[in-house]
Design goal:
Helix content is 40%, strand content 16%. An eight-stranded parallel beta barrel has the order 1-2-5-11-12-13-14-17. Strands 18-19-20-25-22-23 form a six-stranded antiparallel β-sheet, covered by helices on one side. Strand 18 and strand 19 (581-587) form a beta hairpin. Helix 1 packs across helix 2 (33-57), helix 1 packs across helix 3 and helix 20 packs antiparallel against helix 21. Bound molecules: alpha-D-glucopyranose (2 copies). One alpha-D-glucopyranose is lined by residues 150-151, 153, 190, 257, 293-294, 335, 399-400.
């Protein structure tokens, strides 16, 4: 409707019209500092928000009404924002790149499975401090249907904590305690869908037309069939296609994931406004990072795969602009587990400052299976760089499955056939491939496409389960080394390392989930066991397996925090002429440098001294992990099986 310049003029005109109206609504606080600050931020971010909101809803006659109500909601939320969080906002504004620090170490797990409930979680604070966490993601903890609720990712009320875990005040108290210990609380913003028991979904089921418009509901198969032609099946074991028939309504509902997870209709501005209000509520409860669940799926257009569409980005940017105005300390973390080109598009300070790094995750496992680093070196080598001011969240395992999300072009450049290779990886990590050390389970195997993903804990996939079963000490040693190798990489490569709790002591797969009807249909539960604190206690005994893994990891975490070169994102992958050794150079803000070498095989591997010299990194290194001096002579540097060296120049 408008050209760029006239859009800006329109934004200005709208601002001068809306501001006095807002001020009439908030007249009681107009002369206070809090209002001055709100006004200042509104002025700074209004044009941006206007443009984004216009892109989404500019065609609608009631566009301005919705924009004004959105701003009123933002103003309310800012006025209610607790003082300690406003103080934190100010601190973040003074130190906007805090999350790029080498001090950052993340952890994630389920509240109930880790500590029973939120009170129990507070009691675990000393443990989080011992481990060195500065970031704690608590898996979804809001009201959800009884029985299967996709691990809480089917939210029935964004303002009510699941009664089994506690109440909102417990969450606020926990957030405050964490903050006092320098740990940022991370919560999910599950905004692609609600559960079918959310009050909007219930209203739609009762025949309320306004709320039916919050979702995608169809009277027959005409549109579902038309959409299904171009959609990928995300949970093919749950239902074919992306729609679910509701007999009571005699209607089809869009359900990308499970049948009880109803996709929200963001073409409706009321949905945006209502979800923005829920988002600000989470912000004011003390979350410092919001994990944007399934953000790739939020915008749908007929004839497309309805993933990563331009307006899915606009939506996130618009939410981000709302945050900049009303809760400026908050960050977004992108959960885009899609093609690496698409993952990168969500990352910017205007959109998501943080992003999972699914490519690194998948390729680390790939290299362990193949004992080769070519694909890792090639893909990560040119895909790691992200905009200044952003950070990867590097992980080895999480609550989800492993999907082999590398680019087929990257693979074929090295003579690897993507389709065949994924089949090999699935076969390897389900333990079917002869000689494989991996003990995982297939997830969402699709007989129609031959596709599958992998479930399993870090330790089971890295060979510990198979080795422990047969009691083979040498194999156990190799598995422990693989685990420490993966961790040494996520702790040093640049970004926030994220530990899936339980992995720090090498927890194995727990197959008992099949006895629980609410879980048996979803193999991801095999790597979501209840934490056994008697087992956890063995972490301080170095003669136990738990102690070996924990001790090694703890040592690495302490070293990371003492190594400024591990802050920031400056990372350069290098090729030192050995396809079994992953190598990169980290450079800190002050020019500090660390050369990282990681041997992905069970054999010793040499790196010729000449190759290292070529990179001009110096002649003498301090190896941080073993605290030894390494001098470059004529002899090669020799890495032990699965050894990682952190060579500080
Ligand atoms: C995200 C979650 C996953 C969940 C899905 C649907 O991908 O990580 O666990 O099943 O979204 O909410
Ligand atoms: C799909 C989605 C991802 C989600 C996963 C859950 O891969 O792309 O968002 O985490 O399913 O299995």
């Amino acid at each position: 409707m408008f050209e760029q310049n006239s859009l800006q003029r329109e934004a200005q005109r709208t601002f001068t019209r809306i501001l006095p109206r807002l001020e009439t609504e908030f007249v009681a606080v107009l002369t206070t500092d809090v209002w001055a600050l709100f006004r200042q931020r509104l002025e700074a971010h209004f044009d941006d928000l206007f443009e984004l909101f216009f892109t989404l809803y500019g065609e609608r006659y009631d566009f301005l009404f919705h924009l004004e109500r959105l701003l009123a909601e933002a103003a309310h939320s800012w006025l209610e924002r607790p003082q300690p969080l406003k103080t934190l906002d100010a601190a973040r504004e003074r130190n906007p790149r805090w999350y790029q620090s080498e001090q950052m170490v993340g952890g994630v797990y389920y509240v109930d499975l880790f500590a029973g409930d939120l009170q129990g979680m507070r009691a675990k604070l000393p443990y989080f401090q011992e481990l060195g966490l500065t970031y704690l993601h608590l898996m979804p903890l809001f009201k959800a249907p009884q029985g299967d609720n996709d691990g809480g990712y089917a939210v029935s009320d964004y303002r009510e904590v699941d009664a089994r875990l506690g109440v909102m005040d417990d969450l606020r108290a926990l957030a405050a305690d964490l903050r006092a210990c320098g740990i940022s609380l991370v919560l999910d913003f599950v905004f692609n869908h609600t559960s079918d028991e959310h009050r909007w979904a219930l209203a739609a089921q009762a025949g309320d037309e306004d709320h039916a418009d919050y979702y995608f509901i169809f009277p027959d198969r005409t549109l579902p069939d038309a959409y299904d032609r171009t959609l990928r099946e995300i949970f093919p074991e749950q239902h074919a296609g992306s729609f679910t028939f509701r007999p009571a309504m005699q209607r089809w509902v869009w359900t990308t994931f499970n049948s009880f997870q109803w996709d929200l209709n963001y073409r409706n501005p009321e949905v945006f406004r209502d979800m923005a209000a829920e988002m600000l509520f989470l912000a004011n409860a003390g979350a410092e990072v919001l994990r944007l669940d399934a953000l790739a799926f939020t915008w749908k257009e007929l004839g497309t795969n309805c993933e990563n569409l331009p307006k899915a980005h606009t939506l996130v940017r618009a939410f981000n602009a709302v945050l900049r105005i009303a809760a400026p300390g908050l960050l977004f973390k992108s959960e885009a587990i899609v093609h690496p080109d698409e993952v990168a598009r969500y990352i910017s300070t205007r959109e998501c400052q943080l992003s999972y790094n699914p490519l690194l995750m998948a390729l680390l496992w790939n290299s362990l299976a193949t004992r080769e680093v070519r694909l890792l070196r090639h893909s990560v080598g040119y895909r790691f760089a992200i905009p200044d001011g952003c950070a990867w969240v590097n992980y080895i395992r999480c609550h989800d499955d492993i999907g082999w999300t590398f680019d087929d072009g990257d693979a074929s450049a090295l003579g690897i056939n993507g389709y065949d290779h994924r089949r090999f990886l699935n076969s390897f990590y389900t333990g079917r491939f002869p000689g494989s050390f991996g003990r995982g389970l297939p997830f969402q195997e699709n007989p129609r496409t031959g596709d599958a993903r992998i479930s399993g804990t870090q330790a089971s996939l890295a060979g510990l389960e198979a080795a422990v079963r047969v009691g083979d000490a040498a194999e156990i040693e190799l598995a422990v080394r693989r685990i420490l190798l993966l961790n040494a990489i996520i702790l040093s490569i640049g970004g926030i390392p994220l530990i899936y709790l339980g992995d720090e002591i090498g927890i194995l797969n727990d197959y008992s989930y099949v006895e629980d009807a609410a879980k048996s249909g979803d193999s991801r539960w095999v790597h979501r066991p209840r934490i056994d604190w008697a087992q956890m206690a063995r972490r301080s005994d170095p003669s136990t397996l738990e102690g070996r893994i924990y001790g090694g990891l703890h040592h690495l975490i302490e070293l990371r925090k003492a190594t400024p070169a591990f802050g920031g994102n400056d990372m350069k992958v290098i090729n030192l002429g050995n396809d079994h050794v992953f190598a990169y150079v980290r450079t800190g803000r002050q020019g500090e440098r660390v050369l990282v070498l990681a041997n992905f095989t069970e054999h010793t591997q040499p790196i010729a001294a000449n190759e290292v010299r070529l990179y001009g990194l110096g002649y003498r290194f301090q190896e941080l992990i073993t605290a030894r001096e390494v001098a470059l002579g004529d002899e090669p540097i020799v890495l032990e099986p699965y050894q990682v060296l952190w060579l500080a120049a």
